Structures are given as structure tokens and as C-alpha cells.
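Same chain as my last thread, 974 residues:
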Amino acid sequence: MKFAVSMLAGLLALLPVPGHGGITLVARETFEGVRTLDAASPGNLGEFHEGAWQCRAVGPRMESTPGWGWSGDSQGALVRTFWDLREAPYSTARDAGMIGAWVRFEDLAEAGYLSSGLVANPAMVLELRSGGDNAPFQMLGVTREKQWASRDGSLWSAAADPVQTNVWYWVQIAWERVGARLAAVAAIQPLGGTLQTLGETEIILPGYETTTAHVLNAPATTAPGQVYRWRGRLGGATLARIDALGDAAPLPDLLAPVDQRHTWYIDPVSGDDNHDGLTPATAWRSVGKFNQESAHAGIFAPADGGHENGDLVIIDTSQVPLDLGTQALSVRTRGLTLRPAAGQAKIRLRAHRDLITGATVWTRPNPAAQPKVWVTTDGNATDLQDVVVWENDRWLHHVRSATMGAPSPEALAELNGTPGSFHSDGTHLYLHPFGGTNPNTDGKSYTRSRFRNDGGSAVMLLAPDLAVHGIDVRKTALARASDGDPYTAYGIQGDVGFGGETLLQNCYVDYVGKHGIGFTDSNSGRHVLVLDCQVEQGSPYFNQTPFVDYNGLETATGNRTTYRRCINRKVAGLVGSTEGWSRQLVTYYLHNNGTGTQFDEVRFEQCEFGGRVTTGGGIDALVLEECLVAGGDVSATSVEVNRCRLTELPVGNHRPDGTLIARNNLHVFSEGVFNASFNARVEGTVIFEGNTFDLRPYLQSDNPGFCLFQRIGALDFTFRNNVFIAPKNREFGVIEKLEDTDPVHFSKNVYETSAAATLLHGFKEGGMVRTVPLSQWQAMGHDIGSLATDALVDAWLLPLAGSPLINAGHDLVPPVDFSGRFFSSRRTIGAQEPGLSYQGWREQEFPPAAWGNDLVSGPTADPDGDGRANLLEFLLGSNPRASTSYGAFVLQPAPGLPGETLLVGSIPNHAVGATLRAEFSVDLESWVAVPLSEAAFLPPEGNVQNRRGFLSPVPATGDRFFWRWVARPDPRSL
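reply #2:
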């Protein structure tokens, strides 16, 4: 919307400024509010406009101006305005004058360059022209190398101090003509600093006069292809008359900008894009408005960096989602934080379009030849290009065609013969519903994705140092008709300009194409934390991964990403279903265009992934801690896998100079089929210690000699303190293609396998390749102290009475119990024991109908009325639904210690996420805590293998004392 501005209201011609007798204001930009100035409504910015200037709610202001102040956008296009010094009233400043403005650069990536201090092509800010040809006389600009540029005599010069981005500067050019001499001086003044001269130039020529004074964001010349410009803000553009060169300075009634954090608001229901956005009552409305403000520096980045110093954007989607339409939510402001409004967990973004019955009309293009096929236009060709359609959230089969345009007869035949299928030719949608129903009347919900930004992502993070909280975006998948899904089309993507210290927290993405959350920038030194984020239902039409890291610049270095408590259970969608699937798929992929090491480290902490973790190189260290993951195919200098649960295969490392260390992991492989190539590839140094491998669910295999690991290069292999359990009727082994020249270190393992206890397949010894069972392996001097026996374990792989796993092997974990997401330590052979969280116990002890009812199954509930809350029953191992169940503990006299008492008993040794403490008192007011000391014995009653004994002395209290149990939860575990 454009607003006309009265010239009479804005011109302050020839008005002296009190206290500044040497300078008189002629004209100044004074527009306020949210409006646009262009050639038709130039406001106070002279009589010429190229491009448009938009007012903003922050920046410099006059003493009489209320509110935040104002400043102009100069990024929408190359913009230029000037005052013609040959015409009144501007001519009063022709012989001695000043043009000045406040300027703030967001970035200079597209600004000009400066070559050897002799040839300059900067992007201009101010320009004074003169002579009959209206040629530049003095100029002040910036380069992409962050240098100020101005005329110094007949040459260009660069200032010694670099340009600081996100800092306000007062910039000015002052001139004076005395006789035949015309002189001009360019100067800058940083906010809070002093005025500094950049360059001085003069000419002695009779009759030579100034012509125009320009404020602009444009190249020094207009040569073809020269489009240098800076991104930032201008405010308070001023033309003044001066008495002499030394009088030029910021006018005192123009107050300097205020550097402070602002909170901006977006409300898609009550907002208005003509508002200033600074209060909930004056919120913006659309994603387009936010994109404009972020791209055009209407929202400021912090001068000192970091999202803790930057502006905050609050998005209220309590009533309706924020509709993206065919745009992406594009964050271009460094240091910005995005949050949902108070009381909301998510920022709901709407990336798809509903095909609502009644509003969308479906017709049959050829009822005789294809009676099951329906068609609709539903929008324009760009929006419909290569989209995906869902019926009641079920993925439909995508009928492909070699080229865009009307579907071929073969494609139409496939549509007609395939219930639950669709095709898009870019103009029309073709549909065959499940059951052959009529989409006009069947009452089903049909939705489709939208083609945005040439197949781009729904959320684009294009600046560093961001904090993004609670983004919820769905159905962004695209499927090109010819070859599946090659479009970017992420849910959330960090791309060019992304990086710094960035946080992505509590975001949810599903029904995505290509990738769900991915970082594809080519920068260095970015450190990203992805916290509590979930991605589900990737496209079933083309190979994709829910999480991805990518860097295409070979010289990039120092990048790190940490994924903490992230979830992906349904790696890909499943046609005809809303369930998705994960078997033999990849959840995370890291890859690079170059050959360098772009990533210092990628970490996964307490993540739950239905697929594998893979890397294609370019990484120094990869770490998995306490994760549930299908497995991994990694190429890194260093790989660590600790206390994880793996469901498909171990993590391998195929880097010749790499080291892989995997300790205390539980491999309980999902039911399925091992094929000939589905194992962990290893080379370099590989160490597996204290792991349990349970292959019993794999009752089928197309490779009877399947092994966990496949040697693909020179290998130094350690396999110690592990439990290896395989089906009795399969010759599954530990490793294949091992060679007798490889250093190997096998010891103190337990193998529960076939009678032959096969360990090695394809073992190369001299010129022979053979299978090696445990007996032969030990005869060769390997696997000393290892056993081929029934491991005697329960369903949790916990050792039963008489198990060889008890008190065997080396000490591979701390001497005290470790409480983690999945395991607590066993300190014996094999993996650590699985830890039972309160939620897991809750689902074991209560029927499903009670799982969400805190009055019955919550930690403070007491459904059996025995005076003990459920959390205490969980820690003591008692039954929460039986008041006669008290757990195994007793007070008894201490043997040989008259008058002393012991608290003796046991508690579950795999209960995690809460602490248990015994406290004693003589008066029921003051309580003393008594630590539970682990006993050297376990009581005989109950499932003793699943409990940890304790024996604690009770303080001497006389004839009477009281004791109680105190349970304290870790809130993150409930």
C-alpha cells in the first residue's frame, strides 16, 4: 500500500537550528509509520526516486517524534533518490551544504570491491555530483571486504578501520565553493563515537558547481552487470546549508538511534501487515511480511552476535496456523529467536492445501476409458507442479510420467488400475481414490503439498546465531513426475548464511520430501544444537533421510552438530498407510561435495532413531551416547558408540586411518532377514568391548555365513567381554574376510551359537580361505578365557542364576551404578543392563486405559491405598495395585553388634530416573538420611538377578525410632 506524503509538511526549508548557527536544515526524511515512498509519492526525499523506500518502526528520530523512531528500507531493489541543488528550495545549499544520514549495514555480501586502492566499485551510500555532465565529485560507499571508500584527491581511498555491521553510523558529505575552488569532505561517525574524515577532494575551475546530492544503495557506476548493493537501513536522510566546511555535523534535533532488543509479534487472525509489529495489539499478520522485514533488515541483528542478544519474534497460532501459501518462512536476521506465544507449545505452520469437498470440483476426464480417474485444476500451474496428494493422511501411489504435461495413455491406465493413486501434470491433479469412490461425495479428507520457491523448503534458516523453538510443519513432500523426489523440499533447512551458534528446539516435522531437518550451508565454524526435535514420515517416492548435514565447500572447517533427544521412528512413509516404515533405512546422513574435513564433530545423545546413522566422509569425530538406533555405516577419523541400543546391525567405520570404539551397547536386532551385504563394514582400528549381540530374531537369512562385521581393508580388531547369541540352526559369525596379517585381540567373550560355535567366515590364512570355529580359534592362541555356552539370560538379556555372565570379564564401566536412558551398569561381561524408566514401569503395571490417567498411574497416585505413591512402588519393586506388596526389605539386629540395627533388602537394579533414600527420626520432625550401601549378598527371595541388595546401619536412637522412604524423580524421566 502506498501513502502520499505532503511536501509542505515535510520540508523544513531554511529553518535555523537552535544552538548550531553554522548549519541550517533544508530538507529531511520525516515519514513515519509503515508506508512506501516511490516516484509517485516521494515524501521529503527529493523529487526523484528509483526503487521504493519503506518506513520502519525503528531507527533515528526527531525530538518531536514519539515511539521507536523510523528508518527506510533500501534492500527491496537498487534504490536512489536525490535533491536537485539547481532548484529551489534545495538550491540554498548549492554553494555550501551537507548531505547526511544514519546508516546500518546488515551484511555486505553483495557490496562492491576495492582493488589496490586505485580502482573502486563500491556500493554507494552518499554521492555529490557536479559540473555540466552531472558527474560524481565526492562519494562515500562500502565494499564487500568491509571497507569504507571515498575520494581522496583524484584517487579512491579506503579507511583504516573496517565497516562494522549492525552498528549505526552517521555518514555525511559536506561541500563548499569559494570563487573557482570547489571542495568536498566525506566523514563518518559511529554511534557514540566522534566524526572521522574519510576523504577530501577539490577542483579549481571557474564556473564549476554542484548539481545533485544523492542518497542511494547502488553501484558507483551503472555499467552493465554491475549490481553491487548493501543490505541494511537508512534513516534521517538530511540536506542542510552550512556556512563553512567545518560546520557540517549531525543536527541536534535528530536523535541518534537507540540500540536495544525488540520483541516482534505475528498473529494470523488479528494481525495487520500495516502495523508496526511491536506489540500483540499491533502484530503483523502474514509470513510474507515477516520475510520482508527479515530480508530487508526491518528486524535488527544484534551488534555483538548471539541469539541471547538478538530480537525476539513471537508467533501466535493458537487459533489458526500461520499459512505459508507458496512461500517459505525465511529467517535472514542474525541472532533472531522465534518462539510460540505464551501457553502454546508449537508454532503451527501450514505448508499444505486442503482439497475440500464442495470447494474443489472433481470431474472424470474420460469415463469410458478410465472410469476410476478424477481430475481437478485446484490452483495454478506453478502451485501444482510435482506435488503429493494424501487421502485421510494416507500416502497415495505416485504415477510417474517421463515429462510434464497431460499424462500419457500408459499413466492414465496405471491410474485407473491402481486404487489410491495420483498424478500431477503441473496444471491438473488426477486422482483414483481408495475403493474407487467419488471424491466429490465420499467424505474423505484430501490434501496436497504446495510447490514453493522452485521446489524449496518450507522453513529456510539463512542467518547465523538463531534460536528456533517449536516449529511444527507438515506435508512438504514433492514428487517429480519423471523421477520421484529430487527437490530440496525440506521441512526445516539451514542454508547459505546459516551457522554460528544456533539452537533448534522442540520442532516437529513430518510427511516431508527429501529431508525433514537438514543443514546444507557451506560455511565454517557453525555449531548447531538440535534439541528435542522429531521428524517422521519421509517421502516413499525417492531416497531421503529425515536428518542431514551437508557442506559443499571443500575448504570449510570447524563445523559441529549435536542432536540431543531427537526422535525418528517412521523413517519413510508407506503408500496406502499412515504408519510409515523404518526397516533397513537411514535416519541420518552426512555428506560433502569436497574432500576436506568440514566437520569437527557430530554427536547423538539420547536419540531414538528407527533407521541407521551414516556418513560419507568429511568428518573428524562421530559420537553416539545412550541412543536407540538401527545401526551405522560411518566414515570418520574417530567413532564412539557408548551405552546404545541397536536394532539392525552394529556401527561400522570404513576409514583406513579411523578408530571405532563401541562399549557397553545392547544389540537386540529386530526380526527380519539378514542379506549378504547387510553388515557393518570395518577397517582401521576397531574396538568392541562389553557389548551384547542377540541375533536370535533372525531365523531367516539369504546368507548362512552371515557375520556382524565385514573387513574391507587393513584392520586392527579388538573383540573383548562381549556376549554373542545366534540362532542354533544358523552359522552366523562375528566377522568375515579377516586376514591372518591383521592384528586381532579376542578374549573373555561368551558365544551362544551353533554346536560348532563359528566365529570367522572367509578367514584368509596364507593362500587359504576358510571358516573358523571357536575351538580352532582358541587353538591358534586367540579368545583366551572365552566360552561357548548357554548364556542363561532373560528377555532383558539379564543374567540368570548360574549364568557365565555373572562376575566375569573385565571391568568396563564405573564401579557404581550408572543411570542412563537405556542401561544401568552390570560391571560384568556383555552390555549394560536395560534401565527401566518410570514410564516403562507404568506401562508394565497398568492397563493401557490407565497410562494417561495420572490419578491412577501418575507418580503421586496411590491406587491400592497402601500409603505409598506409585513412584515409591516403582523404586521398591512392589506392586502398585496390591496393598499387601511391600518390596524386599527388613529391619534386623546387626550380627555381633548389640543395640545396632540394619536395614536389609533389595531394590530393582534397573530402575532409573529417580532416587530412593531412607530417612530416620526419633520425633517425626527432624529426619536424618541414611545412605543405602550396596551389600555383598542378595536376599534369596524374588528375582534376585534383577535386584540390587543394600545393607545400611540405622543410627543409635534408644528405644524408639521411625523410618521412611523418600523418592525424588528426575522430571525429565516422567
